[in-house]
Structures
1.
Amino acid sequence: MITLDGLAIKALGERASSLIEGLNAFSSQEDGLTRLYLSKEHKEACAYVCAAMETVGLTASIDALGTVHGLLKASEGNPSKRVLIGSHIDTVRNGGSYDGNLGVVVGILALEEIRKRGIKLPFDVEVLAFGDEEGVRFPTTLLSASAIAGVLDPSEFDLSDADGISVRDALKALGGDADSASALAYSRDETLAYLEVHIEQGPVLESKDLPLGVVTAIAGARRFSFTYKGVAGHAGTVPMGLRKDAAVSAAQLICEIDKVAKAEEQFSLVATVGDVRIKPGAVNVIADEAMLSLDVRCEDDECRQQAEAAIVAAANRIASENNTPVEIIDYTAIDTVHCSKRLQTLAGEVLQDMGLPDFRLMSGAGHDGQVMAQLCDLGMLFVRCKGGISHNPLEHCSTEDMGYAVEALVRWLEKLGSHHSSES
Ligand SMILES: [Zn+2]
């Protein structure tokens, strides 16, 4: 039995750190990380991940959509069952080293530890390094995970990047094959669980002074735009009581949105106005149009829908009070994906065994797990990231925290293995 001493954790973290550093070499920019799906850098990173998998004793291969697979065969029991571990190795433009990459690296190292420690598992375990999570190059996202989950829409292969290159052609150029994607789907009966370790990309764990947290759900989201119509007028001559000022209506709605989101205490509801446009946009003209965007996310769909309804009601009330009609457009509704309760419990036990609290939090960002949950039970662990900063070259995860992540994944698999053995 490996005891949880600082040295063991540090050594695991250093292994993770060196693999992360190795992956940093595959970037289309020098002082930052840009690795888009099916780029030259992505292909090179796939080869690097393949080699790293083989070094630790996994059977590695790259599939028709550029997902790298590293298989560790079951050491006992029914080998027809499998557990998947995954994340992505594509990045945003000028991104960080840990988003996605950390989950792949932690997966590889956890399986190395499973082998080294002679831990017997009653299922195959496969690490997956997906290529299309960020959706930056093509107007698609989660393509590679969708193929494995069996929920791929083949029409997405005809979508093109800014240079007019379709996913289909980009795949062909890199030795992939869109036409054989349907064969990549795994069977539901054979797939027990999908586990993903990811940096939090937010400040919660850091604020609690914790290296790891158990994810409860990937938040559902909805987006809106509100456009108020006013009447343009001279800033000096129209008295306040006779104005129809679209900018004032937008400002009042922003305050109302903030109030609605802050009033919700049970679930983690977040609402963001990230874009405001005022027309005509002149210092001495009353605004005749004001548009604001809204992004609402919550781990509870009903709670989110209630908040949306309250915001829409407020938008209409403000419109009539100020005599500025509002046009409301809503789009992109995604329901919450819940992590498996059983996997959350097991992960919580693992954290407690490691002397850490069983801390739970939702994911406000999307992940490969969102799609993989359509195939099997989803479990996710978050790792603290410095300052909550992500999608930025400043993204950072400490060596020690990465060590904790590897150790937790080893123990999570071990626990899942003994539960599975006792159930079957
Ligand atoms: Zn990610």
Note: The first helix runs from residue 6 to 24.
2.
Amino acid sequence: MFSLEGRTALLTGGAGGLGRAMAAAFAEQGASVAVSDLRPGASTEIAGELAERYPAQAFAGVSMDVTDEASVTAGVAEATKAVGSPDIAVLAAGIGELQPIATMSFQQWRHMLAVHLDGTFLGIRHTVNPMIERGWGRVICFSSVASLQGVARQAHYAAGKGGVDALVRSFSREVAADGVTVNAIAPGYIESPLNELAPPGRIEALTESVPAGRFGYPSEIGALAAYLASDEAAYLTGQIISPNGGFKYCHHLGD
Ligand SMILES: NC(=O)c1ccc[n+]([C@@H]2O[C@H](COP(=O)([O-])OP(=O)(O)OC[C@H]3O[C@@H](n4cnc5c(N)ncnc54)[C@H](O)[C@@H]3O)[C@@H](O)[C@H]2O)c1
């Protein structure tokens, strides 16, 4: 079960903590993978490591800024040339920031929405048509518990993720009859560089708020993404799935 042999995946934000784990999980299941990121050196390094480990599959590192349509167009074209047209699009590019609305600049607001909401739209828009033509496709977006539960000082981040949730629910219905599924993973707190900028004490407070008693592992997100990308998940669409160790946002986090 869950084989991805013969499939091609394109990841945005692929050099991040979760992107790297998902690229590894897809490769393990037999897929060819294009790892795209704003940081091309890191994505090329990841692709190189996977190519060494899985010589029968194709891998490429691609430079892509998901807030810029020309960059997304060029990145998808480069990925397609290197590894083939994506059957699976994973839209995981993201940034984090703690900022109260009372002191947030319009530029901060716009950039957060650009990375998460525009970036998800552009990633979908530039990969989905060949999936529809082939009658098979998987779109995996990234939401967050910030959207599902609300987090103070992350209203811009949560708003972007809430937009992703609504996009997933509606768009999934447009392509459900074309063999294309569209879902979002809405993680709780997962060990990744995204959380490394947290102020002192926050990680400890967050960990105490997770009934499972720990942050999630990136490999756990990789396994879920591999399942969502598989043939076996064909009937699962329009869903926001939250691996979060039972986390429920608490006030005592200092927010
Ligand atoms: N790690 C968590 O705890 C967590 C929780 C909830 C949601 N998420 C979401 O999961 C996704 C992946 O998160 P992560 O933990 O891997 O974060 P990360 O910071 O490790 O990786 C994010 C990647 O996105 C890239 N990126 C940033 N801006 C970009 C842009 N404009 N164009 C292209 N790439 C860009 C970064 O270079 C980085 O490699 C994000 O959407 C994040 O919001 C993560």
Note: The longest strand covers residues 32-37.
3.
Amino acid sequence: MLIRLFKLFIIAITLLTAFPVIGASLEISDAWIQNLPPVVPTRAGYMIIANTSNQSVSIIGVESEVFTAVDIHETMENNGMMSMQPLTSLTIAAGTSRELAPGGMHLMMMQPQQTLKPGDLVAVTLKLDNGDTQTLQMTVRK
Ligand SMILES: [Cu+2]
């Protein structure tokens, strides 16, 4: 009996390890934060977000213990002037991906609470409209 339970446990662990994205709605890649001198009060963060599920997913909030606040910004051009504007949510349609990249959408990360240098990892949590949260590591890069 115990051995059977143990075998079931091993099978469960193997399945969980084989499919680490169970419960996760989004696949994040290339997540990075631009390194800037410590005196600069904000940082921009970038990543590629793929929604491999068959349902649309919206990011409705972003949090990190390393920053006092994190917003999603889009970059707009108005009469030749570039400006940034916060988005209340970012929707990734089923089976598509969105890219946060220099010159376009980005995370605006306010007031780093510690000195950051290239190679540092920063945990960031995405709050999704389906009630899930998803935590990822972003790498500080030059
Ligand atoms: Cu911005």
Note: The chain has one domain: 23-141.
4.
Amino acid sequence: MIVRELRVRDAADLLGFLQRYFPEEEALLGTRPEGFLEIVRRLFRWDVRLVLALLRLVRRPIFRFFVIEDGGRLVATTLLTFSKAAGYVSMVVVDPAYRRRGLARELLDRARRATRSRGKPFLVLDVLAANAPARALYERIGFRTLRATAYYVQDAPESLLPGPTGIPGIRPFDRRDAPALAAIAGRGRPPEVERVLPSTPRELTGSSWEGALLASELTAWVYDPGSGPQAWVSAAVSRATEAGHLSSPIVGPSVPAEAAASLVRTAAAWCAARRVPRVMTMVPEENTGGRAALEGVGFRSVIPVLTLYRSVA
Ligand SMILES: CC(C)(COP(=O)(O)OP(=O)(O)OC[C@H]1O[C@@H](n2cnc3c(N)ncnc32)[C@H](O)[C@@H]1OP(=O)(O)O)[C@@H](O)C(=O)NCCC(=O)NCCS
């Protein structure tokens, strides 16, 4: 068995893994094989590879994708991406025939070391609250709960059409809004969450080349009663998934409930106009304003998730 990084020829195996071993997420997201394979191919175009190699050279990789291969077959995967203070782990999967042999533990250790050498103090991941084997694994290697969160879904988005227009205070997001909104988001978070996953303006603006890579159309709106932005939400559609996505909304404490709901409705209707069968988002428990706004336009909480973290030391 060898540990290495993902290659373009792994794409079909990887897709099979995600569809088979993440049934709950798959039911929400609905992976579109063609779009997914297109993204992986794009990732391996020589110019993208060159950028990634250069970033790695200056020790600023934007992601690492570790896999284990046995006799030419993909048997385990772990994706690592980076936020301001943490490495974020996802797609931890081991082929059933290879479980309980320490493969997941090995890949998580690679992720921990890669995060440490990138100068980030924490390793973070999300796990379905009902996924007992994965929770046992993470607990065993020192992860603790950072916060409870949940997937929310609105599965009749067409009912939101044509969507609100001309609501006073709602306007398109501008990059200059980001610092004020990040500060509002930060104030709403418990101190430990803010330490591990600090709110940053960059999180709101997104990086255009990541967006281009994920083949998604991305847009955002704010609620600004005239004194500056006080609420924000973004919406995205991707060729790799059936579902449309909203960000976890940022809702400042003085935003009227109807304004927050109109903001979320604007974003969900934008997705609906792109003919998605459902719209999903992941919202932490502490974001009470965001949850209320989502519920106000027909989103419901469907899958409880826990965000776990540990130090990389
Ligand atoms: C969760 C998963 C990745 C574990 O992979 P794995 O390679 O079997 O895990 P490891 O062998 O590295 O396990 C390390 C330790 O974690 C714990 N652990 C792992 N699987 C466990 C299980 N099914 N039940 C209880 N404890 C478990 C044990 O303490 C284990 O050590 P031990 O075997 O010496 O007792 C694998 O079961 C899987 O792919 N599941 C489906 C996809 C999934 O749910 N991924 C997690 C998404 S967040």
Note: The pocket of coenzyme A is lined by residues 21, 92-94, 99-105, 127, 131, 133-134, 136-137, 140 (CB under 6 Å).
